[in-house]
TrEMBL record, chain A:
GO terms for cellular component: plasma membrane. It comes from the Bacteria. It holds the Pfam family BPD_transp_1. The keyword rRNA processing does not apply. The keyword Transmembrane applies. It is found in: Cell inner membrane; Cell membrane. Its main location: membrane. CDD domains: TM_PBP2. Belongs to the binding-protein-dependent transport system permease family. The lineage of its organism: Bacteria, Pseudomonadati, Pseudomonadota, Alphaproteobacteria, Hyphomicrobiales. It is a multi-pass membrane protein. Keywords: Cell inner membrane, Cell membrane, Membrane, Transmembrane, Transmembrane helix, Transport. It comes from Jiella avicenniae. This is ABC transporter permease subunit. Residues 72-261 form the ABC transmembrane type-1 domain.
From TrEMBL, chain B:
One of its GO terms (biological process) is quaternary ammonium group transport. Residues 4-234 form the ABC transporter domain. SMART domains: AAA. One of its GO terms (cellular component) is ATP-binding cassette (ABC) transporter complex. Keywords: ATP-binding, Nucleotide-binding, Transport. GO terms for molecular function: ATP binding; ATP hydrolysis activity; transmembrane transporter activity. InterPro entries: AAA+_ATPase (IPR003593), ABC_SmlMolc_Importer (IPR050093), ABC_transporter-like_ATP-bd (IPR003439), ABC_transporter-like_CS (IPR017871), Mo/tungstate-bd_C_term_dom (IPR008995), P-loop_NTPase (IPR027417), Transp-assoc_OB_typ2 (IPR013611). It comes from Jiella avicenniae. Belongs to the ABC transporter superfamily. This is ABC transporter ATP-binding protein. It comes from the Bacteria. Pfam families: ABC_tran, TOBE_2.
Length: 270, 355
């Protein structure tokens, strides 16, 4: 904690009003999380806060339910593949965007971030038709493609931002010292944009883990991702099992953020 | 050891002509400076040499062979950048050894060669520092070492001192010149600083709007510029417009200026009655002592004490103004009538704009 103290020591004193505002903002953001995590440990039968006693029964219940566990496993698998594929493709796209100049670069940028701008439902409907056309309707592969498409802009933006920080002269210096373009990428560019790449992968994973609409339309027969399975579950039952599932999601996200911190440091990632 | 021939190089971007027929040659072991204001094409020329840019037309030859088809990573030229361009994630030693590693040298060989070049640029002991942990001057020496360790055929320097403060600038400048001379590497050096260009170069190309205005030795550029632009760019100068009266044999002319007639050296192509400018550098002028025959007479309008010398501006009767420097203790009073003597061997007559 002394690190935090010195970090703030050199900053100008923050006004009281501003401090209160920040505090309220944190309360607003954190209260739902605290409530849901607390409720998951209840010994009672309903989602309630403060929890009634303490028990892990709802976690046992969660892991005992085939539909929820299958949903979690499918979400994890799709999320992991999305993270890897999206990162590779987005890195290539970002490199391409880098060499385009002027107006072309603007259009390219717009095209690459289009999935963020078009309503998810429209993309989902469009993809549904497209996937049926090419014979991938209602398959895991089709769903996987949808997730990659929706997660791509996050990785692209993160990697492009990292690439902008690398001066063009490093590329030229490397070439003048005898490096091929691939060698320059591997030994100079990639290590320097690594924070952005890791960030992009984690964004892509978290985004994929969270997607609902597109999963609903593209999901394979008999296969649910965790958000879909949870929604189905909540339609009929209002048990703290859902809170346990939510807590597991939160823990996964925290692990993701902690990984960024550990691997690249949050300061450098943003 | 390499000779370089740049012939009629051309490059344009949309409407802007960056290079409009640039021709420069470097003999083996020479340091050639490209001097000019920003936008004159000096960096563009260097980038064409390095292979970062492809010219639209013209030719670049190394030892008589065209290198235009060779990509930059196979030209074997060392490049030093204004912003150093060190790899920030590598230590000093890793930066310097980068090119050797690409050439698959053994770890031992890399270590010895990096060590040798580091002592050459006086960086011993900084092997394991990161670039951000060392000063700007040290960073530029790392960049220099990184290029030199590969024994390049040609060394290209793009404003290498521009980001350094004045004291370091001198130090690194002499280091660059010493290393270049010791190793006998042919070098091209881009700068907009005339004193830097004078001090370091064997040859200077003064550039103007994508062309070479004059390509000559520093002495010739300074003392015998082909046009006013070149004289202006290479240091303090006085210009008096005048009309040459008649030629006095090879490269000499009689000229009427400021109420006097002078016999001076001139650009050989100059003809009587051409519009011309007489160049008088401040150091070729002096206040006339009592009893000395003055060439010009005028009134002191400005003076400034600079410590080692005094700076004066003198208005001539016909409206021209001459700047000159005097010894620090010469009495100078504003408004005083004075005579000025001219060292005629350093007066130079040239056209206002070269044909």
């Amino acid at each position: 904690m002394s690190g935090t103290a010195t970090m703030f020591a050199h900053q100008r004193p923050v006004g009281l009003g501003f401090a209160v505002l920040i505090a309220l903002l944190y309360v607003f953001l954190l209260v739902p999380l605290v409530t849901i995590v607390g409720a998951s440990f209840t010994a009672g039968l309903l989602i309630e806060f403060p929890p009634r006693g303490f028990s892990l029964q709802w976690y046992r219940e969660f892991f005992a339910r085939r539909d929820l566990v299958d949903g979690l496993l499918l979400s994890l698998r799709i999320g992991a593949i999305t993270a890897v594929v999206t990162t590779v493709v987005a890195t290539m796209a970002a490199l391409c965007g880098q060499v385009l100049s002027g107006r072309k670069s603007g259009w390219f940028q717009l095209g690459m971030t289009l999935p963020l701008l078009v309503p998810e439902l429209l993309t989902a409907v469009g993809l549904l038709f497209f996937l049926f056309k090419i014979g991938l309707g209602k398959t895991v592969l089709g769903l996987q493609m949808g997730h990659i498409l929706m997660s791509f802009p996050y990785a692209y933006v993160s990697i492009t931002a990292a690439l902008r920080q690398v001066p063009a002269s490093l590329d030229e210096a490397s070439a003048s010292l005898g490096a091929t373009q691939w060698q320059t990428f591997r030994m100079v560019i990639l290590p320097l944009i690594m924070p952005g790449v890791v960030m992009g992968a984690i964004f892509a994973f978290i985004n994929s883990f969270d997607l609902y609409t597109i999963s609903l339309l593209l999901k394979p027969l008999g296969g649910n991702t965790l958000p879909l399975a949870l929604f189905d579950f909540l339609t009929y039952e209002f048990k703290p099992t859902a809170a346990a599932a939510a807590t597991i999601s939160i823990v996964l996200s925290v692990i993701g953020v902690a990984l960024v911190q550990k691997l690249v440091g949050l300061q450098r990632a943003f | 050891m390499a000779t370089v021939d740049v012939k009629n190089l051309r490059k344009r971007y949309d409407d802007f002509v960056a290079l409009d027929g640039v021709s420069i040659a470097a003999r083996s072991g020479e340091l050639v400076t490209l001097l000019g204001p920003s936008g004159c094409g000096k960096s563009t020329t260097l980038r064409c040499l390095a292979g970062f840019l492809e010219p639209d037309g013209g030719e670049i030859e190394l030892d008589g062979q065209s290198i235009l088809a060779t990509p930059s990573n196979r030209r074997g030229f060392g490049v030093v950048f204004q912003n150093y361009a060190l790899f920030p994630h590598m230590t000093v030693a890793e930066n310097i050894g980068y090119g050797l590693k690409l050439r698959k040298c053994s770890a031992d060989e890399i270590k010895t060669r990096v060590h040798d070049v580091m002592s050459l640029v006086k960086l011993t002991g900084l092997e394991h520092r990161m670039p951000r942990e060392i000063s700007g001057g040290q960073q530029q020496r790392v960049a220099l070492a990184r290029a030199l360790v590969l024994k390049p055929k040609l060394l290209l320097l793009d404003e290498p001192l521009a980001n350094l403060d004045a004291r370091l600038r001198d130090e690194v400048r002499w280091l660059i010149r010493d290393l270049q001379q010791q190793s006998g590497i042919t070098a091209f050096y881009v700068t907009h600083d005339q004193s830097e260009a004078m001090a370091i170069s064997d040859m200077v190309a003064v550039m103007k709007k994508g062309r070479v205005a004059q390509f000559a030795s520093p002495r010739e550029i300074y003392q015998k510029p082909v046009e006013r632009y070149v004289a202006d760019f290479t240091g303090e100068a006085n210009f008096l417009s005048c009309r040459p009266l008649r030629a006095l044999g090879e490269g000499r002319m009689r000229v009427r200026v400021g109420g006097a007639e002078l016999d001076v050296e001139c650009v050989p192509s100059l003809k009587p009655d051409d519009a011309a400018e007489l160049l008088l550098r401040p150091e070729s002028l002096a206040l006339a002592g009592s009893g000395e025959a003055a060439t010009f007479r005028g009134k002191i309008v400005k003076s400034a004490f600079l410590g080692a010398s005094q700076h004066c501006e003198i208005a001539l009767a016909d409206g021209g103004v001459l700047k000159l420097t005097t010894p620090p203790n010469t009495p100078v009073r504003i408004g005083e009538d004075v005579g000025i003597t001219v060292d005629r061997s350093h007066a130079w007559l040239m056209p206002e704009v070269a044909a």
